Amino acid sequence: MAHTFSRTTIVFIVIALIGAFVPAFSVEEAEAKSLWDTCLLKISPKCALDIIGVVFENLTITDACCHDLVQEGKMCHDTLIKYIAEKPHLVAHETEYLEKSDELWTHCVSVSQTA
Q1: Cβ neighbours of residue 60 under 8 Å, at least 6 residues apart?
Q2: Residues 56-113: pLDDT tens digits?
Q3: Which of 18, 44, 42 is nearest to 32 (CA)?
Q4: In whole angstroms, how far apart are CA 61 and each of 23, 30, 64?
Q5: How far is 66 from 103, CA to CA, in rounded Å?
Q6: N or C: which terminal CB in the chain sees fewer CB atoms within 10 Å?
Q7: How far does Cα 79 stand from its chain's mean position?
């Protein structure tokens, strides 16, 4: 069964991420701020929405956003996708989303290496 979300829903998820990212981790405040600074600020809001769209809506991603994703780093990508996938209305399909996330990462690394 395919789950689709409107762009508005995705925007709200991103906003919720921004508001809740730091408290979501049981790390010290300085470490949380470092994660925030290094992960969420390395990628444009449009690319963040595109990445979420690929994982949660079966959309596509541009090569430029792939480059941004690889620049962001695997740890940041995995952490943010896992955080979203653990939301109550998504957790039933968390494994599927994490697999899509890994496929996206592999695709984007491949794209970045050919450029």
Answers
A1: 54
A2: 998 999 999 999 999 989 988 888 888 788 888 888 998 999 999 999 999 999 999 9
A3: 18
A4: 29, 32, 8
A5: 12
A6: N
A7: 8
The two structure tokens encoding residue 68? 């941004």
Distance CA(107)–CA(1), nearest Å, equals 24
- How far apart, in whole angstroms, are the C-alpha atoms of residue 104 and residue 30? 30
Cα distance between residue 74 and residue 71, in whole Å = 9
| pLDDT at position 1 over 50 | no
Sequence-ordered list of residues with C-beta below 8 angstroms from that of 21, at least 6 positions apart, any chain:
32, 35, 36, 40, 80, 83
Question: Rounded CA gap, 81 and 84, in Å?
Answer: 5
- With 60 as the cut, is the pLDDT of residue 25 above it? no
